[in-house]
Design brief:
The protein folds into 2 domains: 2-143, Medium-chain alcohol dehydrogenases, catalytic domain (Quinone Oxidoreductase, Chain A, domain 1); 148-250, Rossmann fold. The chain is 26% helix and 25% strand. The protein contains 8 helices and 13 strands. It has a 5-stranded antiparallel beta sheet with strand order 8-3-4-5-9.
């Protein structure tokens, strides 16, 4: 199959590689129809990611179609439209037993040397990590489900609901989805702040932010106080890799 293969830091090439094969009875083979580019893939390309290292086929935000199933697979058949949870925890460690599967030190992650990623034409996945993609969603929308789950998790952990005032510092993909999730849950005001005007435009026009501020803005904290009736925001989400935002959030 053809794949975008990260040969070394900064060297991403298209090449022919061996097509993945089902090796366990609970696995499915999936033809990739759409795949997103996560910031972690950019970091891997730059050689700065902690566990995504060349040589590797990256890609974990994906949607596709099942083309083959293992003998023990009962939930899917060829032709089914699916998305994949890109983490497979061990299920045995203390983190897994208490439900913190994201902290599992032995988990397999899609788009690493341990699990061939979706920058190729096909991937394999366990049935337990595979989920049906509703017909009303496109493959492009399906590839956004994995990052959207991050925003939904943030909202649940922070207790965002009707009337919650929310500030999102950083409105890239994840920050924008936090804004959208907050509005969908009835939050307001939903305030977006970023150093990039185009990200703010997207947050306001397409992702549900009710107010936006271009940073740095010396009056930002006072304006948030005004918008929240002098109370300050109920929830502040930092969705950008900038340590200085911690102090801004506390303000």
């Amino acid at each position: 199959m053809r794949a975008a293969y990260l040969e070394s830091t900064g060297q991403l090439v298209m090449k022919d590689v061996e097509k993945p094969r089902i090796t366990r009875p609970d696995e499915v083979l999936i033809q990739v129809k759409q795949v997103g580019v996560c910031g972690s893939e950019v970091h891997a390309f730059q050689g700065t990611h902690p566990f995504r290292h060349a040589p590797v086929i990256l890609g974990h935000e994906m949607a596709g179609v099942v083309t083959e199933v293992g003998a023990a697979v009962t939930d899917f058949q060829p032709g089914d439209r699916v998305v994949v949870d890109p983490q497979i925890p061990c299920g045995e460690c203390e983190y897994c037993k208490r439900g913190d599967i994201n902290l599992c030190p032995s988990k397999r992650v899609l788009g690493t040397q341990a699990w061939t990623g979706a920058f190729g034409e096909y991937i394999t996945a366990p049935q337990a990590a595979t989920f049906a993609l509703p017909e009303q969603l496109s493959f492009s929308q399906g590839s956004l489900i994995e990052p959207l789950t991050v925003a939904v998790h943030v909202a649940h952990r922070a207790g965002i609901g009707p009337g919650t005032s929310v500030v999102t510092l950083g409105t890239g993909s994840i920050g924008g989805m936090v804004c959208a999730t907050a509005r969908a849950l009835g939050a307001g005001p939903v305030i977006a702040a970023d150093i990039r005007q185009h990200c703010l435009d997207a947050a306001r026009e397409r992702m549900g932010a009710t107010h936006d501020f271009l940073l740095p803005d010396p009056n930002f904290a006072s304006q948030v106080l005004e918008l929240t009736g002098g109370e300050g925001a109920d929830v502040v989400v930092i969705a950008a890799d900038e340590p200085a935002l911690v102090n801004l959030a506390l303000d």
